[in-house]
SCY1-like protein 2
Amino acid sequence: MEIIMPEFRAILGNTKPVQATVYILNKLDIVLSKSPLDEIKGEVLPFVFNTLDSSSLQAQEAALGAIGVIKEYLDDNILRKVVLPKAKSLFFRSSNVKVGERRVDVYMSSLFTSLLIFGNQRSYI
């Protein structure tokens, strides 16, 4: 990975063309399997979150889909305070039905885990 990481960083840093960003996000499981934890936290996670803030709806949808792949690296607070509001906004702006499915899958999985661990003592909204 250290051989290609300098080039890959350049790709992650350049969000144009959008199709390249979407392709990388769709193949994020492969990127994660080949990356050490420090690279995931330092390069990949910021790439996904920056793409959530992209002006491209297609890139935002792909980033939202990638949340399901990276959720093991995120804590519940990040999912509730960062991902869910962005997903909600994207859901209302998008006509893509899969966006709604992804949002519900990610949030419900996190909510279920929280309920198992903490019971019903927490506020989720």
Remarks:
- Confidence is low (pLDDT under 50) at residues 118-125.
- Residues 19 and 90 are 18 Å apart (CA to CA).
- The longest helix spans residues 97-118.
- The chain has one domain: 5-118.
